[in-house]
User: Which sequence fits this backbone?
């Protein structure tokens, strides 16, 4: 018994705070007072270990089972003896002298169980001819339970066979009156037939037809069934009988998800919970849905009712069916239901029974049902299913191709079984060959056929059951290369106002699965990949080329339009040209667009995966300009979040697709790819790509894009020690970009960095003041933060007040913590680490470097990550851990050399020399310093100052003075 149930039984209102210790004490006392009885901890409760003969209830159930077994064997005398022994265990009602509210439901079930055994016992004794002896006992039982038709029929039969026919007929009259007065219903068919037979003077027979218990109609569990542990646990938990109603569970999901296999396996696991039987009925779903009356006839025959005894009336059949299941513990499995109306009359009427239904639809109209959606298998379980079919050796030998097969099958059991069966039939077939065929969407459904198993046929049945508008919607959804859909996309594709009903129809049919709501509050749905392939196939068969083009064009126009509004509401932080280009007409209502973009970051976060999937698709279709328009807008979000890998893949797909057909788009895309290489520290490659892009853009007359390429190239050249060329590039870029305050700020910052590295610090200081004034006038907090940063670093380079520099950079950090971007925050944190190092505040300096490193690592900004790692290693030297620091510094040095970053290499060599000094390795220290001198530029104030600050970290912290220690 669970601890929760024990607590609710002991303290119905409110348990004390010490309930756990109290409960433990009570159990300990029980153990002391019940010598020889084990009370063990079991999961979240306790288990009482006793022999069957020591518990009345167990003796009762054991004897009842023996009696029913004898009755099935046709030995009524022995059956009656066992059943009487079972009933003898009952002296009065359970727990007659104790009231425990938490156990009242269980006590009710026990009373129903006792009454059912009593009726079985009466049947056995009637069959043995003990009619007269039973009359009085039955009269008392019927008085206590006047609405039980089985008791009434047994009493009528006992009286009739005792020569008391008039009294038997009077029992019928009284029972009928009671049923009409109390329930407003006539007696069931079986009792009416018994009454009619008595009026005709016919004797014998049983008052109600009796099935042969227990009965099991379950098919065998599939030999290759695997996985679904969580679903099995949920189903078996929900179907455990209890409470005041019949538990009903609906397993719904897309075609081929394995709902029937799961239901059969769960039903077998529950056989001990439903000892009286398990009924299984195939309802044939949308293909050829079976008539409910015919199903009821089959169920009645399975329960032992012969042909003539089966009523003609549908309601009468349902009443007889419910009557036969009264107070029994039977699980009814209804497979492949087409709708709630098909199953309502098949539900038992008394607690103790349960119903498990499978359907492609959710059966939303079935009140009170618990619904579990059965989706694809997990990756692990999908491979295990393939392994069960074709063997572990083949999976191990071609594991990567097995993964491809599972992915192409969408992890759906039906598709996996078909693929596995094909491989099993051809043991020499390479898994890679089938994987190649399945990855071709044009032939995937053709490949997923073997014998009578066909994915296409299964999907066709569900498709045929859809309303016409839902079929149109599904075909149009197939044109979109995505499996994750917000509701607004479906709205965009339909020329109707009934979008809600269409979505409901698709969800109800299992073709579309709800997955919750996204960051904008928009409902989202999942379209399984095989369903999408099927939908695309139907679109190609049923829709014209013009219709398909119009649908695809509509959704692209809607997406670009929303992305444009969302991007314009985000702060501009990306060093690229402002958003340009004519936007296609927006097919969505303005209020919907307004709602979706109210939180632009949330919309981009929700749609990021879909947009990144759709952009290569658009490029492959030749819509290069549209792809670039969309990607430029998405990049406003991606750049601020540091999602450079996403940008690189998308822009590369655009550049590759547009190479020959649209050189203007290709050039723009390549200029962004150069920027992304730059961010990752690939300076030599980035420089070459910037220069190639500049040549292309100049030839195409793209002046603004060219100015930005020059600006970004200038920043890259600084890192590789070519600051003079950087200054020259900035002169022309500044003129071209002067109308844009953000662009002007970036240009000024680049100029400042280049001038400082050339030793022109006074000139740089004037530009710092100009940049700060511009940022203050512009009022944009991110640009103001970076201007404050540059001003702070200017103080450091001029040998000015480090405390003032720290104050300025802290202001920048405070601004950036609230508005981002995180890349700029990492830069400011790194600078503050250097300032604190100069102030001798080692611990705070290292903390600042660590935070900057963690951000840079997350954003994959390798140059900044390495520089912060280098600073932390320098602090290790000062802490007396030079032996640990040297390998880290050597690794940083190797990476900087690979990047071609001359200035960073120079600083790292200086720090290594200090570390070697601590190890008394004078030769290595001398070599490192000599190389640094060869690489260094004597004009470079920036590098010299930064090295000096970092060397502070390599110096051991001073020991506290005696006076300080005393204080």
Assistant:
């Amino acid at each position: 018994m669970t601890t929760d149930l024990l607590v609710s039984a002991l303290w119905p209102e409110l348990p004390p705070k010490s309930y756990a210790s109290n409960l433990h004490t009570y159990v300990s006392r029980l153990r002391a007072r019940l010598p020889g009885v084990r009370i063990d901890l079991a999961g979240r409760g306790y288990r009482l270990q006793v022999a069957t003969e020591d518990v009345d209830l167990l003796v009762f159930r054991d004897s009842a089972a023996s009696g029913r077994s004898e009755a099935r064997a046709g030995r009524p005398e022995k059956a009656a003896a066992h059943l009487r022994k079972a009933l003898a265990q009952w002296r009065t009602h359970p727990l007659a002298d104790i009231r425990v509210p938490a156990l009242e439901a269980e006590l009710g079930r026990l009373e129903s169980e006792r009454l059912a055994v009593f009726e079985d016992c009466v049947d056995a004794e009637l069959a043995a001819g003990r009619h007269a002896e039973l009359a009085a006992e039955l009269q008392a039982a019927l008085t206590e339970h006047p609405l039980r038709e089985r008791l009434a029929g047994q009493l009528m039969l006992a009286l009739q066979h005792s020569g008391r026919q008039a009294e038997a007929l009077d029992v019928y009259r009284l029972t009928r009156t009671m049923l009409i007065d109390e329930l407003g219903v006539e007696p069931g068919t079986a009792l009416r037939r018994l009454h009619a037979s008595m009026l005709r003077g016919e004797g014998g027979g049983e008052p109600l037809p009796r099935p042969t218990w227990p009965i099991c109609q379950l098919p065998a569990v599939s030999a290759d069934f695997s996985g679904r542990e969580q679903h099995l646990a949920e189903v078996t938990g929900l179907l455990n009988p209890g409470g005041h109603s019949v538990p009903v569970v609906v397993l719904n999901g897309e075609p081929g998800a394995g709902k029937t296999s799961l239901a059969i396996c769960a039903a077998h696991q529950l056989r001990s919970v439903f000892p009286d039987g398990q009924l299984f009925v195939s309802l044939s779903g949308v293909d050829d849905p079976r008539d409910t009356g015919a199903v009821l006839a089959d169920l009645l025959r399975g329960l032992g009712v012969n042909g003539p005894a089966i009523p003609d009336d549908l309601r009468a059949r349902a009443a007889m069916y419910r009557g036969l299941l009264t107070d029994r513990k039977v699980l009814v499995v209804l497979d492949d239901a087409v709708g709630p109306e098909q199953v309502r009359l098949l539900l038992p009427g008394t607690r103790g029974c349960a119903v498990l239904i499978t359907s492609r639809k959710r059966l939303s109209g079935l009140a009170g049902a618990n619904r579990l959606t059965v989706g694809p298998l997990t990756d692990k379980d999908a491979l295990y299913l393939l392994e069960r079919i074709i063997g572990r050796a083949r999976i191990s030998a071609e594991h990567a191709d097995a993964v491809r097969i599972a992915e192409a099958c969408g992890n759906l059991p039906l598709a996996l079984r078909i693929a596995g069966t094909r491989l099993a039939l051809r043991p020499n077939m390479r898994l890679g060959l089938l994987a190649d065929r399945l990855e071709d969407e044009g032939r995937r459904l053709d490949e997923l056929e073997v014998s009578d198993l066909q994915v296409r046929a299964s999907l066709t049945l569900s498709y045929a059951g859809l309303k016409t508008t839902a079929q149109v919607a599904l075909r149009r959804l197939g044109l979109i290369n995505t499996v994750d859909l917000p509701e607004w996309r479906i709205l965009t594709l339909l020329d109707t106002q009934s979008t809600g009903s269409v979505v409901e129809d698709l969800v109800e049919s299992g073709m579309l699965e709800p997955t919750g709501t996204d960051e904008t509050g928009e409902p989202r749905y999942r379209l399984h990949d095989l369903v999408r392939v099927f939908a695309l196939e139907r679109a190609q068969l049923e829709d014209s080329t013009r219709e398909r083009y119009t649908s695809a064009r509509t959704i692209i126009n809607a997406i670009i339009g929303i992305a444009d509004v969302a991007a314009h509401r985000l702060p501009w932080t990306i060093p690229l040209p402002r958003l340009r280009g004519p936007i296609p007409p927006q097919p969505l209502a303005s209020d919907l667009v307004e709602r979706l973009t109210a939180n632009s970051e949330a919309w981009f976060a929700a749609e990021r995966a879909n947009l990144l999937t759709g952009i290569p698709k658009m490029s492959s279709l030749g819509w290069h300009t549209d792809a670039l328009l969309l990607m430029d807008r998405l990049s406003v979000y991606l750049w601020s979040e540091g999602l450079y890998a996403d940008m690189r893949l998308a822009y590369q797909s655009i550049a590759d697709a547009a190479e020959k057909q649209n050189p203007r788009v290709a050039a723009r895309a390549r200029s962004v790819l150069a920027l992304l290489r730059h961010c990752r520290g690939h300076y030599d490659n980035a420089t070459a790509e910037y220069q190639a892009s500049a040549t292309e853009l100049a030839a195409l007359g793209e002046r603004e894009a060219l100015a930005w390429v020059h600006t970004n190239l200038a920043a890259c050249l600084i890192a590789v020690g070519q600051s003079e060329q950087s200054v020259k590039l900035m002169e022309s870029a500044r003129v071209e970009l002067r109308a844009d305050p953000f662009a002007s700020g970036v240009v000024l910052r680049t100029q400042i960095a280049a001038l400082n590295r050339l030793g022109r610090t006074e000139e740089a200081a004037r530009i710092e003041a100009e940049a700060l004034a511009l940022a203050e006038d512009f009022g944009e907090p991110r640009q103001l933060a970076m201007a404050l940063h540059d001003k702070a670093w200017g103080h450091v380079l001029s040998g000015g007040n480090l405390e003032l520099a720290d104050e300025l950079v802290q202001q920048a950090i405070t601004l950036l913590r609230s508005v981002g971007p995180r890349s700029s925050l990492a830069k400011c944190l790194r600078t503050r680490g250097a300032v604190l190092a100069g102030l001798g505040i080692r611990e705070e300096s290292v903390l600042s470097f660590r935070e900057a490193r963690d951000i840079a690592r997350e954003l994959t900004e390798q140059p900044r990550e390495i520089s912060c790692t280098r600073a932390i290693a320098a602090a290790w030297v000062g802490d007396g851990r030079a032996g640990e620091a040297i390998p880290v510094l050597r690794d940083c040095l190797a990476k900087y050399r690979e990047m071609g970053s001359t200035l960073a290499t120079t600083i790292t060599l200086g720090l290594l020399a200090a570390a070697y000094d601590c190890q008394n390795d004078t030769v290595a220290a001398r070599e490192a310093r000599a190389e640094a001198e060869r690489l260094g530029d004597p004009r470079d104030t920036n590098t010299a100052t930064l090295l000096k600050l970092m060397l502070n970290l390599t110096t051991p912290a001073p020991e506290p003075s005696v006076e300080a220690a005393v204080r």
In short: The longest helix spans residues 104-127.
